[in-house]
Design brief:
12 helices, globular
Length: 269
């Protein structure tokens, strides 16, 4: 029901497309964050990053629950059993934590983690602020809950970003390189998919252009404070995850994530 009226098919299709994006984005990035446990720069960051990743996985569960409430299936199935080809997360979020081979030291790039998480959480907060006024009330209520935790997530990554940029030398150089890598695929994060116009028309969320402009406006003072020019445009060079285009990184991650679930999908976890 929307405003006391039955939900029409076009509205539901647009709503489902957004919910899958929100759920899949948080699900895969939370997993990438969990991989840092024991490998973060210091023990306090191990605890902090683990807590943020746990929150993000909880947010994913909330969005999967909304999908389940709309008849899309069991929450655990939505999270663990869907193949990579139907996932709607942005490709940037599925990428391994750095270059190199699995569990080799070069694979874990802290600069990349800081920039990817900071830029993503800022975009996520802007979306949640918009969704608080969503025409779909259950989503608006969920956005209110999610948004309460994002203040701390955003403060955490903004602090890391500012300190490393202001440190100069190798730290700044690595962050600047990470910014280029993230920008190369950040269009995928900001995209609302093929039904973006319907989402705005139905007032489920503000338009993609408005949200993108809000992200730029929110980040410009941060870039100015560290004396760095913001790149002019975003890219989507690795493909469009909103269309189900993904990399082997996602396939490998899903194999690990679903290993226990696949042992007994009917079990209560």
């Amino acid at each position: 029901m929307v405003d006391g009226k039955p939900m029409d098919q076009a509205y539901q299709s647009a709503l489902l497309s957004l919910l899958y994006q929100l759920a899949d984005d948080d699900f895969i990035l939370a997993y990438r964050g969990s991989e840092w446990l024991g490998l973060a720069p210091h023990i306090e960051e191990d605890v902090a990053f683990s807590s943020i990743s746990q929150d993000s996985m909880g947010h994913a569960a909330m969005f999967y629950q909304l999908l389940s409430d709309l008849g899309e299936g069991d929450v655990n199935h939505l999270a663990h059993a869907r193949p990579a080809s139907v996932r709607k997360n942005a490709i940037l979020l599925e990428m391994v934590n750095g270059p190199g081979h699995y569990l080799s030291k070069p694979r874990y790039d802290w600069a990349f983690a800081v920039v990817r998480n900071y830029f993503y959480v800022q975009a996520k907060k802007i979306r949640m602020e918009s969704l608080k006024n969503s025409s779909y009330v259950p989503l608006a209520n969920t956005a209110l809950k999610v948004n309460m935790e994002l203040y701390y997530h955003l403060l955490h990554w903004k602090t890391w970003f500012g300190q490393l940029m202001q440190a100069g030398g190798e730290a700044r150089k690595r962050l600047e390189d990470a910014i280029k890598r993230v920008y190369a695929d950040f269009e995928g994060v900001l995209s609302l998919g093929s039904l973006s116009k319907d989402l705005a028309a139905f007032k489920i969320i503000e338009s993609e252009d408005i949200l993108k402009e809000k992200w730029k406006l929110s980040m410009k003072p941060v870039f100015d404070s560290v004396h760095l020019s913001m790149p002019d445009r975003f890219g989507m060079q690795s493909g469009d995850g909103r269309k189900g285009e993904h990399t082997k990184d996602l396939e490998d991650a899903l194999m690990t994530l679903s290993e226990v679930y696949q042992i007994d999908p009917a079990a209560t976890w």
